[in-house]
Amino acid sequence: MAELTRLRLPELSATADLLTIGATRIYRVADMEGIGWPVKAMFGALMPADLAAAAEKLPEGAIDAVNATLDLSFNSYLIARPDLTVLIDAGIGNGKERPDRPAWHRRSGRFLDVLTALGFPPESIDLVVNTHLHADHVGWNTVHDGQGWRPTFCKARYVVPHAELDHWSALHAADPSGATLHGAFVDSVLPLVEAGVLTGVETPAEIAPGLSLEPAPGHSPGMAIARLRTEAGDVCFLADLIHHPIQLVMTGLNSNFCGDPTQALVTRDRILRRCAAEAAIVAPYHFASPAFGKVEASGDAVSLHYFPVSRDDIILPAGEPELS
Ligand SMILES: [Zn+2]
Ligand SMILES: [Zn+2]
User: Model pTM?
Assistant: First the structure.
């Protein structure tokens, strides 16, 4: 009922994944992927011996134990239904000043070109969800038009959990220097508030037919996961509930960025076990392609089974004249 297709976009040197469930298509589109992320920059508490042991239990390439790096991705998910086009989370963005995050500083990625090549130019997006407001989830909320930052998705309503917006708004009010969220609050959140297109919602909330936000606090105070009802069961967009498959092998491991580590652990365990009990499809934000999978719980252990890729498609730019 659910089929996974690997999409190749040679003109853009990009790949994406497409999960098709009846008339619903869900695309994984990465703003950044294939990154060898230093382990210490993600899991400061992790010891080298534990890393090597975990690498043996995970798919090849998930961990490079020799160089102490993790294969990390930054995945937005685009839901395309006949009635609705939704973007879940919004990457790092282009041209953002992030001097204390060199990998995110003044980028010029082709995320919007990939979306457009897949058939989704910015004006086609109806709804943008920010699961939380960390800088790597809100970047494409805005683009610079030469004068200032304006909403990228000009016809979209943007939604964020109320508690999340309140939290970071209060921090920005206490320190208006622009430092909040490495600069992202000022260049990627405030312009939406000023344009009147950002809505804070109390979670849990149904934000569109069959699409809801559910509270998942811990990593960030107001973070939510998104849940989409489909004819193949629910698809849960896990945001930063979990950052890397190593956290399924080492269940006590939190990222350096989890604001309330104890709460993050409790929330992760609760939601993953519920996904397992419901046989929901999961779509984590930072997992490498294919990212989509199902979790299984057995005793203390929770494991992830990736969807097999059943097809390969090449996407060429539309309307380009063929050379003869
Ligand atoms: Zn985060
Ligand atoms: Zn993140």
Answer: 0.96
